[in-house]
Amino acid sequence: MRLRQSATTKFRAWTARRFGTDALPYQIHRRRIYILPSRHGLAVAALIIAMLIGALNYNSNLGLAFAFLMVGVALVAMHHCHRNLLGLVIDADPEADGFEGSQTQLNFALYNPSALHRFDIEIHCAELGSAVRSIPAGARAQAGVTLAATRRGIFRLSQFELRTRYPFGWFRAWTYVQAPLLAYIYPRPVGGHRLPASAVAQGSAASAEQRGEEDFAGLRPYAPGIPLKHMAWKVLARGGEAAVRHYTGDVVEPEWLDWHDLAGIAPEARLSQLCVWVVDADAARRRYGLRLPDFELRPARGTVHRLACLRALAMFSAGSP
Amino acid sequence: MNDARVSFERLTWVCGCLALALAPDVGRLPLWILATAAAAMAIRLTLAALGRGALPRAVRIAVTVCAIAALLLQFRTFNGISAGTALLALVAGLKLLETRTRRDLCVVALIVYFLSLAALLVGSSFWLLAYLIGVCWLTTATLLRVTVASASPDWPVSLRYAGKVLLHAVPIALALWLFFPRFAEPLWRVSGDDQSAISGLGESMSPGDITELVLSDQIAFHARFSSAPPPSEERYWRGPVLHEFDGRTWRRGGADLGAAPALIAAGPAYRYEISLEPQRHNWIYLLEWPARWDLPHGILTDDYMVMLPTVGRPIDVSAVSYTHAEFNGLLGDARRRSDTRLPRGSNPRTVEFARRLRAEHPAESDFIAAVLAKFRTEEFFYTLTPPPLGADSTDDFLFETRRGFCGHYASAFAVLMRAAGIPARVVTGYLGGSYNPYADRWVVRQSDAHAWTEVWIEGRGWLRVDPTAAIAPARVDRSVREAQNAAGAFGFESAGRLPWIADLRLRMDALRELWRARILQYDQDSQQTVLAHLMIPEPDSRKLIIVLAGALSLVLAWLTWQVRGELRARPRDPLSRSYARLCAKLAARGLPRQPHEGAETYAARITQSRPELGLAVQSLCRQYNELRYGAGHSSGDAARFAAAVRAFRPRHSRGSSET
Lengths: 321, 659
Known about the structure:
heterodimer, A: alpha+beta, Immunoglobulin-like, six-stranded mixed sheet, four-stranded antiparallel sheet, about 30% strand, B: alpha+beta, six-stranded antiparallel sheet
């Protein structure tokens, strides 16, 4: 077993060197598909050999015909197993996110551009597990491989495998797709510390937020990313430049989530606490900034900002002061 | 995936396949083995229906040990087809008892495949092969459903898929079957094989025990005459000669006593070829009296039977026979003793009658004539449903029942002869046979089985006497039966009052002959003939392997092409197909059509990058657009477009660095 494992590891490394990195989405090429009989397939081979010996020994032409038919069935099954992967298009989300201690998913998309239904396509990530999908002709399928996030940090996967044993499970065909996948594992969101008072703006942040939407402050040029509900459609309709309405609410004093406010507790616990604050601040739709010893994210709000903050926490290396 | 539990539905199908694969073995395997397999299936299915798992381990082990022990007791070996099949049937049944996972079901499926093969080693009919290929089809579809882990394909899809796999496997099987080298001799002999079904006569005959002679249509053998065939009343096919009589039963008796007496042939020579199915016995049937035959290991016994050293293989023999022959020489003492011996005290009335009659007719020929006259003039009937006879069977027959078939008359006649001191023996075999014009050969069926006698006349040798002929001339005069008039009277209903049924039977027989000659007896010589047909000079086994490799490469290349081709969606209408071909041709030259491009834009782009192709492509694309969107075009236009696309051969660009 260990021998087989080390051989597999060496082979995977060799394919990585041989083919370099694949651009996603990747369409499986026939030269990249490997195929070997499975254990069940070896049993079938033994059966067929026994059939042939029996038929030859009894000089039975009908027996031989049947045994040869089985040889034919096995060879056709081999071609079909190989074909089951051939030309399949695989895409993967290069980045995944999750909290430590939760189940994170690496997301894959399969596209079957052919005229055949493809059964039992297995996406396998080493040390993680697999997902099995059947994809009808011309259809797409989503699949997720679960990553049990046990440690904060970045989980890197340099290649994954597509496998199939269809039909009959007599052969296993597989291919390695060389594509770097990342999973950001955020700190575990635990911690009961409250935000230091200095960080909180005067008055209720939530009410400031609501007020902000009401006080019109002028027009600004449109930039991609600004919500469409802020568009000044009338200006546009008059033939002017695309412009958006600007509100005074945006100038509400932001809060800073600061590493230095949490002096006296262990670094991982500090990160966990910061993580809780980010999640809470985002849930309350407040503006917030994140300050780490050597890194600062200016106050902002929204999904992208939240993602940037959490990833910064995930990537933070505790060695730095 | 392997740990997935087996569902009731899958289990049912696997059980069904197993039952179908075992069906040809009914009647061949001991009943308890089939019953055990059936019971195992029933128990497992019931448990599955109740939602329970397999039986407890201890029970399974106990059942297995008992079954294997019983099997050993019955067969004394696991070797040979019957024992092997029985073992497989038991293992499959017991494996079902413990099926928990898909893998167990896969194992049962493999056993089903092997059982099919075992049935084919025993049987040899076309229908059996067709049936077992059907079983193989069903098993393959079941296997597909069992092994697919995600939503498994439904039944029509599975069956269609399995059918396609089998169809694609056929060319591979054909190439291998045609060119895979055959061995002249088996790899090893398996002892205790009862390879063939019992066909033909036995080595004993006891007419008194038979109360109903069932005429079977089963074919005993075929004969083809290269000379003119003898008249039907002389077409005696000689089989076992019986010497020993114990009052009820005639047996083959003692060992071979000396050499066969020399034969002085008279009359025309008949040249013919006999094709025998594999049989359990070791003699062959030849036309009386055989003079020459081409069996290197055949032995002629002193009573003119041709014996073989081995059994169980189909045999073709060419032989020469004379229907009239005389014998030169004397009857050996041992034979004279064995052929005049009667059990002491049995059949006293017969013995008494024979002595009295012999006293009246001292000449042997007169005595024979007197006995035959008794059969002819007194109330003797020919029947296939004779009354049973008592311990002194000949007494009962001659003086009480007077009803019987050929065996009764031959037996009674021989006893009368022996009681009068004339050496006599019973010969069993076949009489007649029917001609099949479609295959140009004669078919001899079990219903043609016959028994007659031979008596030793001093100075003349063995003389054939057929006492049945004295009673029922129709039984001997085959021309009556061939006209199919007397058929009903003799119970040959199946021979048919309807001529077309008889005709159909002859045609089937011709097909059977083709099957036998071309398929069942395909061997080394046939392979060399095939090579010769392929214009290969001096065919030998080395060239055979080269041809096999070549044929397999061709077939596999075809298979790869076929299998990959199914990935591409083939447009149904010819116009789209032609257009797709045009795009494929251009794509092969590095100019693939982008999915968003219409025909016109595509042509324009090609004109820009490869001006020399522009004109042709533009013309073709315009044609396509007109045919596709224009009004009123005929199918001829589409065909013309297809031809134009086929003729279009874009060349590689010379200047481009891409090539």
